[in-house]
Specification:
Layout: E1 7-12, E2 18-24, E3 29-32, E4 39-44, E5 48-53, E6 59-63, E7 79-85, E8 88-97, H1 100-108, H2 113-120, H3 131-149, H4 151-155, E9 160-164, H5 171-177, E10 182-188, H6 191-203, E11 210-212, H7 218-221, E12 227-232, H8 243-256, E13 257-266, E14 279-288, E15 291-302, E16 305-316, E17 322-332, H9 336-345, E18 349-353, E19 364-368
Parallel strand pairs: 9-10, 9-12, 10-11, 12-13
Antiparallel strand pairs: 1-2, 1-8, 2-3, 3-4, 4-5, 5-6, 6-7, 7-8, 13-19, 14-15, 15-16, 16-17, 18-19
Helix pairs in contact: 3-5, 8-9
Pfam family, one: Methyltransf_25
Protein name: Methyltransferase domain-containing protein
Domain Methyltransferase: 162-261
């Protein structure tokens, strides 16, 4: 079944309601993702691909405009299908999902990455026990990494020009912009995160040009070959859900740096993370402006997909009134080895993971654009 889609998605045209069917080896077909259902999509010996009730054998749906003779023996046809439910009939559009992360997104209604961070932007600083101290510390660490990895930048008379393509609320952008001899530009897919960065930079009287931009087109949002360093920290790149998308982003980063400049990434080491479901990842309890915040994540792994559910419980201490925010996203659990291979494929030389991460809290990957 490796040559067929891992799942198929049925979208009802009248109201856009969707149903996900995931490949099931036992039935040699696709089983509805919802629990306690018996609906399968299978290849019938007489009628071709059909939807059927596994208990009653009743046919529930069929392709509308692809005859049985023209259908693949491996997977159901895309396009219009018609279903029958009692006296009612519905028309569905069927599409193949060729990657597991597509199936997971559809199954769990995972919002786009920008929505995930838009929801979290006002609270993201609470991840850190002391956000300002974390910013200061990361600035020192990143500056040391940059000067150690690219020593020519330490000696040049001009300021080091840095582009942060996944700046979020500014943890690393502000960290470097606050240091002497750094000029920082920043972009992110989340406009709410950018707004938080702008507000923080204004309070600190820092000049950080910002824009809303997908890192995969960073070279369209920023001037090519104009930065000494392009960085993406905090495991941002694995939000891209395929090798092809990551390679696209890396090539865009390379296009933005000058010859001899570098790309700096920080990501999780998924090879050292236990895979499984219902993993509890607490951040702790924070008190701010008369409110108590409890922050934690739940991680669920499905093969190379890390599905993350972020919970923030907010309690007004004076009244006891409580609000709960839940935001969901998906990461591609890419290995460091694979990421280094993609960095090399994108045109970087000397790609490596730094020993002991130079004190940084995540593995640091670097590569240099040839002169």
């Amino acid at each position: 079944m490796a040559t067929g889609p891992i799942a198929v998605l049925f979208r009802r045209l009248i109201d856009n309601q969707t149903e996900l069917f995931i490949f099931n080896e036992k039935s040699a077909g696709y089983k509805m993702a919802k629990r306690d259902t018996n609906i399968l999509i299978v290849k019938h010996k007489d009628f071709g691909w059909i939807g059927t009730n596994a208990i009653t054998a009743e046919i529930t749906s069929r392709p509308w405009n692809v005859p049985e003779a023209e259908q693949s023996s491996l997977f159901p046809p895309e396009g219009e299908w018609v279903s029958k439910n009692g006296h009612k009939s519905y028309v569905y559009e069927v599409v193949h999902l060729n990657a597991l992360n597509e199936a997971v997104d559809a199954k769990y209604e995972t919002p786009p990455v920008d929505i995930f961070y838009d929801n979290l932007a006002a609270y993201y600083h609470l991840i850190f026990e002391d956000f300002d101290e974390s910013v200061t510390q990361q600035g020192r660490q990143l500056s040391n990494i940059i000067h150690t990895t690219w020593p020519s930048l330490r000696n040049q008379s001009l300021a080091v020009k840095v582009l942060d393509v996944s700046c979020g609320i500014g943890t690393q952008s502000i960290a470097l912009a606050a240091l002497p001899n750094y000029i920082v530009s920043a972009s992110d897919i989340s406009h709410q995160a950018i707004e938080q960065l702008n507000n923080r930079a204004a309070k600190l009287k820092l000049s950080i040009p910002t824009s809303t931009c997908d890192m995969r087109v960073a070279d369209k949002c920023h001037s090519p070959a104009s930065f000494d360093i392009v960085m993406s920290a905090d495991n941002s790149v694995p939000h891209l859900k395929s090798d092809a998308d990551i390679l696209l982003a890396l090539k865009a980063m390379v296009a933005c740096i000058k010859p001899g400049g570098g790309v700096l990434l920080t990501i999780r080491d998924y090879d050292k993370i236990t895979r499984g479901l219902n993993q509890f990842k607490p951040y702790g309890v924070r008190i701010e402006n008369g409110r108590r915040f409890i922050l934690y994540q739940i991680w669920d792994f499905e093969r190379d997909v890390n599905r993350v559910t972020f919970h923030i419980i907010e309690e007004v201490l004076e009244t006891g009134m409580t609000n709960v925010l839940v935001s969901r996203s998906v990461y591609y659990a890419i290995s460091i080895k694979k990421m280094l291979q993609l960095m090399y494929k994108a045109g970087l030389m000397g790609v490596k993971v730094l020993e002991d991460n130079e004190g940084f809290y995540q593995p640091v990957l670097v590569g240099t654009k040839p002169e």
